[in-house]
Amino acid sequence: MTLFSALPWAPERNQRTPSLIVYPAGTPDSELAGRAIYKTHSRFVLTYDPAG
Predict the structure, then answer these.
(1) Distance, CA of 28 to CA of 39 (rounded, Å)
(2) Which of 17, 19, 30, 32 is the most buried (most CB within 10 A)?
(3) How far is 50 from 19, CA to CA, in rounded Å?
């Protein structure tokens, strides 16, 4: 029984590069590089930069 079928990679997959930035929990919103995921001791910001 197969739960997942393999899908081909899209040609656009390399057009943007993900970056994960971790900030201390007390970092003001104005200093974050984007929307944050709030954790107890830190804030995670995931951004996508153009590949290159």
Answers:
(1) 14
(2) 32
(3) 11
Segment 1-52, tens digit of pLDDT: 556 666 777 777 777 788 899 999 999 999 998 899 999 999 999 988 776 5
pTM of the model as a whole: 0.64
Tell me the two tokens of residue 28: 């003001």
d(CA 10, CA 37): 27
Check residue 51 and report its DSSP letter: P
Name residue, tokens 């994960």: 20
